[in-house]
Amino acid sequence: MKVALICNSDLLGGAAVVTYRLMQALRHQGVDARMIVYTKLSNSSEVKVVGNRFMRGVYFMWERLRIFMANGLSYDRLFKVSIANVGYPLHRHPWVKEADVVALNWVNQGLASLNGIKHLHKAGKPVVWTMHDMWNCTGICHHAYECDRYKHSCGMCPFLNSDRQNDLSHTVWQKKKELYDSVPIRFVAVSNWLADRCAASSLLRDRDVNVIHNAFPVESFTTEVQGNLSLLGVPEDKNLILMGAARLDDTIKGIDYAIDALNYIFDNHPSVAKRSTAVFFGNMNNPEVLDRLRFPYVWTGRINDSESLRCLYSSAKVVLSTSLYETLPGTLIEGQASGCVPVTFGLGGQRDIVTHLKDGYIAEYKNHKDIAKGIIWALDAEIDRDELHRSVSRRFSASEIARQYISLFKELI
Question: Which residues lie below 8 Å from residue 162, measured CB to CB, with a gap of 6+?
Answer without folding.
Answer: 70, 71, 155, 156, 168, 169
